[in-house]
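Form P-L/3: holo structure prediction, ligand iron/sulfur cluster.
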Amino acid sequence: MLLDNHGRRITYLRLAVTDRCNLRCFYCMPEDGLNWLSRTELMSYEEMLRVCELLVKMGIDKIRITGGEPFVRKDIMQLLTALSKLEGLKELSLTTNGVLTAPHVAELKAIGVRSVNLSLDTLDAGRFFAITRRDEFANVMDTMHELLKHDMEVKINAVVMAGKNTQDIIPLVELTKDLPVSVRFIEEMPFNGDGHSYSGVLWDYVHIFDEIRSVYPDIQKVPDPQYSTAYNYQIPGHLGSIGVIAAYSRTFCGTCNRIRITPQGTLKNCLYDDGVLNIKDLMREGKSNTAIVDALRVAFNSREKDGWAAERKRMENPNFHESMATIGG
Ligand code: SAM
Ligand code: SF4
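OUTPUT (holo model):
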């Protein structure tokens, strides 16, 4: 069992495979993109596989592939297929914007992926363009239907942004009436890649829930699965369910079971820290598996208590402007 210095079990790795993306969601990156990582700065698939293998042996049993957009990295299915064969890994999943995903759904299912998180902040094509700066709404909807056709578990991630898409909350909730999807509303976090930060969110998890309850007063709380970051709900008679994720308010740190690895191989113990160890560098220095496992254990033994403590530490570096595309969400 892999435990951190606060006695929390670590079981879940989120691996960002690229910083590149075919959308430009304004809450994630500037319109002209990021200063993209070069090929040599990125971890290779061999390096990713090696570190995943070590982590699974240490106690990780769930891996989520994310990015940037996973499907813009060449041959991503090769990595997913290799990961799906890791002994001891119970769950392999991914988070995608759905632009290029539909043609891969059958193969994802064949290699054992059962659940996909699809990012979709609005059901209005015009607002989709305003948020993502790309005209790809139809492709994302195709992906959603293709996933459902293949009986995949579909979680829809919708970031709630004051003045941008709060009118989409109820239409997105209504999607759960006839479709077996889980729509999860996420508080906006300060990771837009341009250094703009803020000291609070207008639409926090309480506000989001109150908005839903004002239209659906009979909404019911359902049990939250172990390690869930979402408060989970259901509306009687609806096929799907609803989640609200306090990503900015950080109400879930006490049971945090997750670690992150960025496309450049940096281990993040917390969404809000600025990286605690570069695993790619260790591998390229020729370190043995034993030495890498030792370094990982040291890192897991110095996890911050919560996202507030991690953020305070990160703020000591005022030039640190991270995009969610290198964190992976
Ligand atoms: N490109 C893929 C996608 O959009 O699904 C995977 C990477 S994306 C960074 C992962 C998740 O982070 C998405 O669901 C996205 O909505 C969310 N995200 C990005 N920036 C965010 C922000 N500033 N606040 C909250 N969530 C954010
Ligand atoms: Fe791309 Fe995902 Fe970031 Fe949007 S949230 S710009 S889809 S990486």
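COMMENT: The chain is about 30% helix and 15% strand.
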